[in-house]
Amino acid sequence: MRKSAVILLILVCFLFVAQGQKVRYGQAPRQAKASVAYPLAVHISGIHVRSYCGGTGCADAVYADALLNGKKIDLRCDYDEMPLGDYQARLKKNKLSANPTEIDQKYELRLPDGTTRQCRVAGYSE
């Protein structure tokens, strides 16, 4: 009788501990600041998931087919999902180049819900 009571007590404790665990799948997207201007127009027309290997190893990355200032580029974005459509963007990091579609340029895209996505130019065509 004592063994079954102890086992039941332990199971009840594990049940409460298991319900207390929170699942965190990643960081939430950042909110756009009201005082920051997003002067560039970007149109996302396609999404691809490909493997990307960096300094910390390999992982899947989201690549977006985009049109920026009339030029077709590939953007590698930091988040799992990237909806198709028109967005406002701003240049985050300028590598002292006059060409805004230079490989590895950083952009911040503002989505309609007020969140932002960090993206880099991974390639271009035309």
Strand content: over 45%
List the uncertain runs: 21-25
Structural class comes to alpha+beta
- SSE series: HEEEEEE
Number of strands: 6
Number of helices: 1
Amino-to-carboxy terminus distance? 79 Å
Computed Rg = 22 Å
User: Main beta sheet: strand number and arrangement?
Assistant: 6 strands, antiparallel, barrel
Helix content: 10-25%
Strand order of the largest sheet: 1-2-3-6-5-4
Mean pLDDT: 78
Give the CA-based shape.
Answer: elongated
Descriptive tags:
126 residues; alpha+beta; 1 helix; 6 strands
Task: Describe, in short, the structure shown.
It contains 1 helix and 6 strands. The chain has 126 residues and is α+β, with helices and mostly antiparallel strands. The protein has a domain at 40-125.
Please explain how this structure is put together.
The chain has 126 residues and is an alpha+beta fold. It has a domain at 40-125. Helices cover 15% and strands 46% of the residues. The protein has one helix at residues 2-20; strands spanning 40-54, 57-68, 71-77, 85-93, 106-110, 116-125. It has a six-stranded antiparallel beta barrel. Strand 5 (106-110) and strand 6 form a beta hairpin. The termini are far apart.
